[in-house]
Design goal:
Blueprint: E1 4-10, E2 14-20, E3 26-33, E4 45-46, H1 48-66, E5 73-80, E6 85-89, E7 99-100, H2 108-116, H3 120-127, H4 136-146, H5 150-156, E8 159-163, H6 164-172, E9 182-183, H7 185-188, E10 194-195, E11 200-201, H8 203-209, E12 218-219, E13 229-230, E14 242-248, H9 249-256, E15 265-269, E16 273-280, E17 291-296, E18 304-311, H10 315-325, H11 333-338, E19 348-350, E20 368-370, H12 378-404, E21 411-414, H13 421-431, E22 435-438, H14 443-456, H15 462-468, E23 471-475, H16 481-496
Parallel strand pairs: 1-5, 5-14, 9-12, 15-21, 21-22
Antiparallel strand pairs: 1-2, 2-3, 4-7, 6-8, 10-11, 13-14, 15-16, 16-18, 17-18, 19-20, 22-23
Family: Belongs to the FGGY kinase family.
Domain Carbohydrate kinase FGGY C-terminal: 266-455
Pfam families: FGGY_C (PF02782), FGGY_N (PF00370)
């Protein structure tokens, strides 16, 4: 058998390809950013063709750097930004419109109308999600209603939809020349169109958005022993490699963190933050603003579910300091700047650029920096930015404990922001529990590789994967209870200042 497994990690700001060995160790990687298209306030788009070109490039470069070819890969997995919607012509392979990104808020009127019409409770019951701009269905409806010719093409079966996993799987397996139109339950569960119990597209939910069923991909297991297909020799791998794993990015990170037992949880720090708690084969419905979602489905086994707290803006708030304000030259500088002060100086920053996600779900909210005096400096703002990442996580952890009754004794963390050691110390201080980072911090790609490798027998069982997990660093809380309570009270007060800023019909 080949010695390695590959994973495409198609994220919000970049696409990477990583290669892992049997021990779950990184062998090679290459990563390229893609353009963030911002046509107007609240709109966020990507060019799907650019994403596919970047995917081709990172695969080829990583393989070349490692001196490997397609024959060295036992399987390939895909993981992706989940709710970002692509609609394209299956005959030509051309997108009808840019991908509408999960952060985009143009569909706020669609979401509000669903609530007014009493459809929100049906969506919550069947899909486990609140009507929100975050999810894919409203984006598909917007394209159908606003891009000339798409509605007619969809009715003919020419216009098809997918999140970016489906777009890449279709292209990797041949595109217009026999590409497979598939997704997995973790991605399908982010659309507002899939019934969580049946793992099938639901006609009533489709009718709410006016979406023809024939637009939608086939739903197959996240780890698929029958494969989704094989890569084409004419593609970036230049050989036939089984495509056997597909997981939305946050579920992939949960698998990469080997959170296979009910009650285990991980938090991924990327563009946004995403905390998932494995609830096993039990479907737990949230009463506190969390999402019920599919965690993974391996082969013919029952699906495993999770509670998720999704936070829109965390790492991208640090990018905002760099790109829009210019007070840092790179993300790493945020730590050095924030260390210049001992506390936030009374400043709180709530980065509700796209409204507030879990547990608030307020599309009318917008970002606010509060508590400023002439005493404050850019160092206080940098520290407040890091604290905002941690306070938003505390909001979600509190809701999760209320829903599940599970009190965390440790939080497993991964993603780019975990390289910021001050931020991770603040997270332990604000939560009051230890924070643990694994040796392989890029667990999203690793989880996709695990799903693909399990499908082809590269790894025999999840026990193999558990043996691969090793802790790299642990942060213990240093704040006392009074500091923690005072800080969180200030945060909750700051959150109230962001509400009712945008009028939503």
């Amino acid at each position: 058998m080949a010695d390695y497994v590959g994973a495409v990690d198609q994220g919000t700001t970049s696409t990477r390809f990583m290669i892992f060995d049997h021990g779950g160790n990184e062998v090679a990687r290459h990563q390229l950013e893609h353009q963030q298209i911002l046509p107007q306030a609240g709109w966020v788009e990507h060019n799907p063709t650019e994403i596919w070109e970047r995917t081709r490039a990172v695969i080829q470069t990583a393989l070349r750097t490692a001196g490997l070819g397609a024959g060295d890969l036992a399987a390939l997995g895909v993981t992706n930004q989940r709710e970002t919607a692509v609609v394209w012509d299956r005959r030509t392979g051309h997108p009808y419109y840019n991908a509408i990104v999960w952060q985009d808020t143009r569909t706020d009127r669609i979401a509000s109308a669903l609530e007014r019409e009493g459809k929100g409770d049906v969506i919550r019951r069947k899909a486990g999600l609140p009507p929100a701009t975050y999810f894919s269905a409203g984006k598909i409806q917007w394209i159908l209603e606003n891009v000339d010719g798409v509605r007619e093409a969809a009715e003919r079966g020419d216009a098809v939809f997918g999140n970016t996993d489906t777009w890449l799987l279709w292209n990797l397996t041949g595109g217009v020349d026999g590409g497979v139109h598939v997704t997995d339950p973790t991605n399908a569960s982010r659309t507002m169109l899939m019934d969580l119990e049946t793992l099938g597209w639901d006609d009533e939910l489709l009718s709410f958005f006016g979406i023809p069923r024939r637009m939608l991909p086939e739903i197959r297991p996240s780890s698929n022993p029958d494969f989704y297909g094989v890569t084409r020799a004419s593609g970036p791998l230049a050989g036939e490699v089984p495509l056997a794993g597909d997981l939305g990015d946050q579920q992939a990170a949960t698998v990469g963190q080997v959170c296979f037992e009910p009650g285990t949880a991980k938090n991924t720090y990327g563009t946004g933050n995403f905390l998932l708690l494995n609830t096993g084969t039990e479907l737990v419905r949230s009463r506190n603003g969390l999402l019920t979602t599919v965690c993974y489905q391996f082969g013919a086994n029952k699906p495993v579910y999770a509670l998720e707290g999704s936070i829109a803006v965390t790492g991208s708030a640090v990018q905002w300091l760099r790109d829009q304000l210019g007070i840092i030259s790179g993300a790493a500088q945020s730590e050095a700047l924030a260390r210049q002060v001992e506390d936030n100086g009374g400043v709180y920053f709530v980065p509700a650029f796209s409204g507030l996600f879990a547990p608030y779900w307020r599309s009318d909210a917008r970002g606010a920096i509060v508590g400023l005096s002439r005493y404050n400096t850019n160092a206080h703002l940098a520290r407040a930015t890091l604290e905002s990442i941690c306070y938003q996580t505390k909001d979600v952890v509190g809701a999760m404990e209320q829903d599940s009754g599970v009190v965390l004794d440790v939080l497993r963390v991964d993603g780019g922001v975990t390289a910021n050691e001050l931020c991770m110390q603040l997270q332990a201080d604000i939560l009051g529990v230890p924070v643990s980072r694994p040796v392989v911090a890029e667990t999203t790609a690793l989880g996709a590789a695990y799903a693909a490798g399990l499908a082809v027998g590269f790894w025999k069982s999840t026990d193999d994967l558990k043996r691969n997990w090793h802790e790299d660093r642990r942060w213990e809380p240093q704040w006392n209870d009074e500091q923690r309570e005072r800080g969180y009270a200030g945060w909750r007060k700051a959150v109230t200042r962001t509400l009712d800023w945008v009028d939503v019909d």
